[in-house]
Amino acid sequence: MAKKQAGESDEIRLKKKLAARAKDDNGASSGPASRSLRKRLKRVQRKRRALALRMKHAAGNKAEAKT
Predict the structure, then answer these.
(1) Cα–Cα distance between 6 and 40 in angstroms, integer?
(2) Cys staple from 8: which of 12, 49, 61, 63, with CB 3.0 to 4.6 Å?
(3) Residues 43, 10 contacting (CB under 8 angstroms)
């Protein structure tokens, strides 16, 4: 069975966690846990951007003509 999609994306969830940590630590979120959360967020963002670029390239000239 496939894993069910959550109500909110990983990116949004990670952003909320990072914001909450920064708020709790008064902006000094330099701990290893915060760093790993930030790295996970960046990884998800890179993955999303790469997918968008792949889809754009796959569309070819049709996408360029529309925009």
Answers:
(1) 17
(2) 12
(3) no
Specify the pLDDT at position 23: 87
Q: What is the pTM of this model?
A: 0.70
Q: Give the whole-angstrom CA distance, residue 51 versus residue 43.
A: 12
Q: Rounded to an integer, what distance in angstroms lies between the CA atom of residue 28 and that of residue 62?
A: 47
How confident is the model over 52-67, as pLDDT tens digits? 999 999 998 775 666 6
**Residue 58 CB contacts under 8 Å (≥ 6 apart), including other chains:** none
Other Cβ atoms less than 10 A from the Cβ of 46: the count is 10
pLDDT for 4-22, tens place per residue? Answer: 666 778 999 999 999 999 8
* Long-range contact set of residues 29-38: C-beta below 8 Å, sequence gap at least 24: none
